[in-house]
Amino acid sequence: MEAQKQLRTRPKRRVVMRQRWEQLLFVHWEVNPDLIQATLPEGLAVDTFEGKAYLGLVPFFMREVRPAFLPSLPWISDFMECNLRTYVVGPDGPGVWFYSLDCNQPIAVAVARHLFQLSYYHAEMQADRSEADWVDYITRRLYKSSLRHREKTSHYRYRAGSEQTARPVAPGSLEFFLIERYQLYSSNFRRNILYSGQVWHEPYQVIPAEVSVLDDHLVEVAGFNRLEQPPECMHYSAGVQVSVYGLKRC
Predict the structure, then answer these.
(1) Closest to 209 in 3D by CA, of 153, 138, 139, 135
(2) What is residue 188's predicted lDDT score, i.e. its pLDDT?
(3) Closest to 235 in 3D by CA, of 57, 49, 19
(4) β partners of residue 23
(5) What is the average pLDDT across 147-169?
(6) Which residues contact 55 (CB under 8 A, 6 or more apart)?
(7) What count of other Cβ atoms lies within 10 Å of the Cβ of residue 199?
(8) Regarding predicted confidence, which is higher, 192 or 228?
(9) For residues 74 and 123, what is the distance between their CA atoms, to the nearest angstrom?
(10) Cβ atoms within 10 A of the Cβ of 161, count?
(11) CA–CA separation, 69 vs 63, rounded Å?
């Protein structure tokens, strides 16, 4: 946990990208740590909280995504993203391992795959914001060859809970373990190379989320059995301004 706190310090390196993440839903299920470990590349170990491992599903909106030295362009810089992830410990400390990142901006998919070695997938995505602040978030991955999941959509309907006030999560809590993550790992499997990368932002202001529709299709596609148990916890954040730093080889 102490290493996780240290990663919250702004890196003394050159920022390569700037962006804003908005209207994030964090959904987490408890999963057998052995199942997680079996999916990880060499050099990474499953990270646990009180002996428990977790899968996280995070739909959200990317805004003003741009290289640090250029302005944002509305028709390129604003799009949707939904990631499926778990939590690991690697050579550079605790971090996030992404099973998939679905995105409806093909340029962003190509750049992230090439520059950050991440498992991005092009998807058709749409969102409607209805009365009472509900977000209807729908995604359908565009497969090039497989017909198995081609017509399957994933649907999430969520909003911030109304009974509490958004605030930072407490260090040492399960919520801190799951949400306050500032480092990712990625891998070039062909060359067997592991990379780490960092982001920086102010701590999330979070609140328990209300979720009326929750599809775990992306969990199944990642190779896990469909989850019968309900999520361990669900949180909402209005968003953060983010600085992104370049990858480094572990």
Answers:
(1) 135
(2) 86
(3) 57
(4) none
(5) 83
(6) 28, 29, 31, 36, 84, 85, 86, 219, 224, 227
(7) 20
(8) 192
(9) 19
(10) 16
(11) 16
Nearest CA-CA partner of 101 in 36, 10, 21: 21
In the chain, the DSSP E strands lie at: 15-31, 45-46, 53-67, 79-90, 93-103, 120-129, 135-141, 154-160, 183-188, 193-200, 206-214, 233-245, 248-249
Closest CA to 235 of 202, 207, 204: 207
How confident is the model over 69-87, as a mean pLDDT? 91
Neighbours of 134 (CB within 10 A): 15
pLDDT of 140 higher than 80: yes
Please tell me the distance from the alpha carbon of residue 209 to that of residue 233, in angstroms, as a whole number: 9
Tokens of 166: 């958004």
DSSP class of 147? -
Q: What is the pTM assigned to this prediction? A: 0.93
Q: pLDDT of 205-214, one tens digit each?
A: 999 999 999 9
